[in-house]
Hints:
alpha+beta, 9 helices, 4 strands, 15% strand, globular, NfsB-like, oxidoreductase, Nitroreductase-like
Amino acid sequence: MKPLELAKKRYSTKRYDRSKKIPQEKIEELKAVLHLTPSSINIQPWKFTFVSNTEVKTQLAAASLHNEGKINQADLLIVFSVADDLEEFQKTVNQLPDGLRDWYNNIKQTTPESDVKVWLAKQVYIALGVALSTAIALGLDSTPMEGIEPDKYADILNMKAYKPILAMAVGYRSEDDKYQPSVMPKSRRPKEDVIETVS
Ligand SMILES: Cc1cc2nc3c(=O)[nH]c(=O)nc-3n(C[C@H](O)[C@H](O)[C@H](O)COP(=O)(O)O)c2cc1C
């Protein structure tokens, strides 16, 4: 399928078919692609947690506001976390190539910590975009979600140095999901308002 066809097929799924399981090779491919996500200066300030375990997924669903139902129905939940304890993250950075480490140390020395954290979180959103595009290319439906409770997620996943900021449900759409594009056409601002061409 071509990129535009995939973009039209992808939508934020609101109802999943509980009975459909994702083949393990597709999950492995999603992991491998996420691992290759690009980031500024190749800093890679993330952790991607793949949750298929029903018990843990149910606990996370209960900490996901209006997203609880979707997470319980979907076969897989991916949690996207960002480095939050910068002292701890420094140990990871110190193992990265010299040039990258120097760049990062320079940014850290010249930028307020709160701004460094915002910059690191932006990198994680790139990974969400990569995951959304990859999922639909693999024939999987998904829902990006900011509607989660990060502190509760961190407790459930026993995460200390990283902070969960996003989640993505993955599975197969329910036939009766009225939000799928064949039922509810995609809604976007006019193309000419958002795309400019300078030629
Ligand atoms: C960063 C981000 C966070 C989102 N959070 C949620 C969410 O918590 N729950 C939800 O149902 N949809 C969520 N969405 C889905 C958006 O509402 C959706 O992408 C938008 O309305 C466009 O619709 P489409 O994805 O079906 O094309 C989120 C999307 C993004 C990109």
